[in-house]
Amino acid sequence: MDEMEEELKCPVCGSFYREPIILPCSHNICLACARNILVQTPDAESPQSSRASGSGVSDYDYLDLDKMSLYSEADSGYGSYGGFVSAPTTPCQKSPNGVRVFPPTVPQPPAQQQHLLPQPGSLPPIPRNSCITCPQCHRSLILDDRGLRGFPKNRVLEGVVDRYQQSKAAALKCQLCEKSPKEATVMCEQCDVFYCDPCRLRCHPPRGPLAKHRLVPPAQGRISRRASPRKISTCTEHELENLSMYCVQCKMPVCYQCLEEGKHGTHEVKALGAMWKLHKGQLSQALNGLSDRATEAKEFLVQLRNMVQHIQENGVEFEACLVAQCDALIDALNRRKAQLLARVNKEHEHKLKVVRDQISHCTVKLRQTTGLMEYCLEVIKENDPSGFLQISDALIRRVHMTESQWGKGTLTPRMTSDFDLTLDSGPLLQTIHQLDFVQMKVPAAPMLQLEECCTQNNSATLSWKQPPLSTIAVDGYILELDDGNGGPFREVYVGTETICTVDGLHFHSTYKSRVKAFNASGVGQYSKTLIMQTSEIAWFTFDTASAHPDIIFSNDNLTVTCNSYDDRVVMGNSAFSRGVHYWEMTVDRYDNHPDPAFGIARADVLKDVMLGKDDKAWAMYVDNNRSWFMHNNSHTNRTDGGIAKGATIGVLLDFTRGIVIFLVNDEQQGPVAFEGLEGAYYPAISLNRNVQVTLHTGLPIPDFYTPGEADPTGSVC
Length: 717
Hints:
disordered C terminus, 7-stranded antiparallel sheet, repeat, 24% helix, ubl conjugation, 6-stranded antiparallel sheet, synapse, Double Stranded RNA Binding Domain, Herpes Virus-1, zinc ion binding
């Protein structure tokens, strides 16, 4: 509640609001203070159309501050109109907020007219063509014949001030003590009685029907007991009419006479109660966001206070290290020691000053935010719809504006608590006078950016960055991965980039990755280890980069043919070295009984001969009647059964057993084709212009096949 006090004080007198009125700019001011800062303007300068009323901002004629010289940029105060009104005869006054106030000069009436002066407690008449300037935003306006009565009273603010002052009153006494009442500790809302602790235990035990009664602190009970009843608001233009509707265009409550006779007749109006509830909801919703910012600010202040302690601890530790090194040097180094200590202390004080300044700034802003929040919550408790709606728009804007002030970067420390200085004690004695700090340490551990790290098929992409507060230079990074089988880490990338894609990993494998930074001082710590899982099933296409130039691709590189009568080789774009994999190819076109070959190959296989002619490929070639296995131009295992258009050829590669099996139309073609396979192999096919095939990947292992046990010493590609 103490933090809300600033919201409840007049910007002119610095005291709690008394009879506050609402200016068209949505700011508030005491009625008496408004009279004190009135300035009378010449008739010639008063626009005939200028009228002040409580109907909205548009009813006021704001004066040109530059032209009328109402506002002095030199002192940010108030003065008379330059060139129009002579200087006031009364001395200049200043409010507690530093606002210059010139009370209006009222001519003294003759002695025989003294009895006509206003009696004490009544308001004296306001001079014609009076002007008032808002003490907060410095917008000026000329009053009409109604004067200050044209401004609506802020009954909500007045009620909040009354409750706040009541809560600060003397302590309440117990109502049941027979002798010398003790200070009350609780109030029962149902019984409407204040109790001290002994009387509460004796007269209001927490059992039976009394167990359901709500006990509140005495101050809260005082506020709820003295809360003013809901008042019926009347129109400022038609004092006998109650406010019953809300003008959406003018954003103000109006009466029926305003709708029938006034300027609001053609405006959109809504029920007062509905708009009251709507604006209360909007203010509550806006407060939720501001409350989150206030919570973050409190946590940020705790962080800053902890940084002060860390800076002090680090400063002491750094200073002790410096002293130890300097004492170990010769006398010439001792003369230099004082200079180095001064530099450390200067850095120490600079860091403390920056953090303390930020703490002070954030504390003030948080206090203002909390005060605004508490004030808004008290405003929401008011039961006066029209009064609430008069100030709700301004409060909502203030809440949003205050929330935006806690934007990105506000809750970020301006200073790190680390001392990034290292004393180099290695130079020779003759260079003692050149001894200085070097701002170089080994880099901090990089931070993996998890949102950018991912795996696709058998490739892994990793991204990292240096900690945001680190100022240590980095020359490069070292990325390490294990073998996907729990083995040791190995370097896969060294360079300056902060993102890297590693291809050729094992499918269906779990890899651990980490990264570290290095500079001229050495290698820093590793980042946290990231565990990544490659795809369980292989999805791949034919590789356009490694294929023979005569190969023709289509269907997103899943369909291939050839423009040559000679056999040409094309491989897949993924290599396998671990696990069990199966893929198929369908024959889309088969003319003149060619003999295409299907199988696996090393990356450097010959591309201009049939697959299997060299020692880099293991294949099955097949025509319309029979098939053969071929490796290094050796033909084995002739098997009856050929292919035709629409046929399906399957390849099953099992690294757990080191074998490859071929299938034709879902039936195994011959025995196990090849055994003892180790290393990395690519899917491959050779064909000529008489054949066209389409690749199908991501297929499950055929039902008839049972994979063997995995090799715990699986190879690494």
